[in-house]
Amino acid sequence: MTQTRTSATFPPPVMEARRWLEGVTFSADRPLINVSQAAPVDPPPLALRQAMAEFAVSEDSAHLYGPVLGNNTLRTELAEQIGAHYAAQVSADQVAITSGCNQAFAATISAITDQGDEIILPTPWYFNHKMWLDVAGVKAVDLATGDDLLPDPDAARALITDKTRAIALVTPNNPGGVEYPANLVSAFYDLAVEHGIRLIVDETYRDFDSRSGPPHDLFRKPDWQSTFVHLYSFSKAYRLTGHRVGAIATGPDLLDEIEKFLDTVAICPGQMGQFAALWGMRNLSQWVAGERDEILDRRAAILEHMPGLTSKGWRLLGLGAYFAYLEHPFDLSSNELARRLVSEAGILLLPGTMFVPDHSPSGKRQVRVAFANLDRDGIRQLFDRLQALSF
């Protein structure tokens, strides 16, 4: 087979996991528990859907091209809300809207790298970040984390070369769930400034952070826009996964380069999704707060059930946002374990091998549980099934 850009990377992990369901039947008394994907399964709230329907019918602009970097009304609203969230000043010309947060990452990487350049990714990594680097011909340099799943700035410093263009963090983390302490994020910012590289921070799950107040102070750093690239998604907060609306906050000079990528890939973000994001920010703050409370309650339920699993040799490595990251006690690779769980326990989850490079042994002992779509009873059933396992 001829080597191509896409053949340089692996198949989409969530789609691969779904194929494990083929030919497997689940009984009514033990239905499938699907904790493989971190996406809401419910539609947006009814009021938002009604507003979207009215927009589609009454506004011709709902069906037309718009500005490449997004509609000015949405950019302005998001800049104001970022400023409020991080206790900082952010302007609309420092914000761009993208067709999902994955595109925000891809556009940023395309704007700051050439083939053969390097990006440092802490492991376990978000696999779509690794996939895009593979496709772009950019080397992903893995930064191993310890049992706390927190990356070490000094270890990152040792990996920086003249080819390094950025360090990319995700907090709250996917897949690990951990919330990076503000001083740790700040230390990575200082490291990036020291070496003249970018710090990309994907904060897709910021609306479900358990902490109150700004999660870091990067937007208050002098000339932050020359180093810091903030990525965000509206998909989780407003259940807009199918409408693909994400965002970037950084300097206008970098956004000028990012605009070139966006114009050639999608021309502009979709009007319906942008309308929904704007309407959601203006009308659903209390609803989002309730969604956050529900996620935090499910997180608490996992902590309540962990002792039973710990007694069987499992370990909880990370917990937060939509995710629990676990170390299993069995003498088999997590990739094999995950496949067997489908038929033997009625559980679909992702193995740690999907989040680390092939040479890393840690992924063989780890699994990711995306618990956002399980209520307390679903979490209890999940833990009962895991606790009953014997391999």
Describe the protein in words:
- It contains 13 helices and 13 strands.
- A seven-stranded mixed sheet has the order 2-8-7-6-5-3-4, with helices on both faces. A four-stranded antiparallel sheet has the order 9-10-13-12.
- Strand 9 (315-320) and strand 10 (323-327) form a beta hairpin.
- The chain has helices at residues 13-19, 46-58, 72-86, 101-112, 127-136, 153-157, 182-195, 235-238, 252-265, 271-283, 285-310, 334-345, 376-387, and strands spanning 33-34, 95-98, 118-123, 139-144, 164-170, 198-202, 228-233, 246-249, 315-320, 323-327, 347-348, 350-351, 366-370.
- The chain is of the alpha/beta class.
- It is 40% helix and 15% strand.
- The protein folds into two domains: 6-43 and 287-387, Aspartate Aminotransferase, domain 1, CATH 3.90.1150.10; 46-284, Aspartate Aminotransferase, domain 2 (3-Layer(aba) Sandwich).
How is this fold's topology laid out?
Elements: H1 13-19, E1 33-34, H2 46-58, H3 72-86, E2 95-98, H4 101-112, E3 118-123, H5 127-136, E4 139-144, H6 153-157, E5 164-170, H7 182-195, E6 198-202, E7 228-233, H8 235-238, E8 246-249, H9 252-265, H10 271-283, H11 285-310, E9 315-320, E10 323-327, H12 334-345, E11 347-348, E12 350-351, E13 366-370, H13 376-387
Parallel strand pairs: 1-11, 3-4, 3-5, 5-6, 6-7
Antiparallel strand pairs: 2-8, 7-8, 9-10, 10-13, 12-13
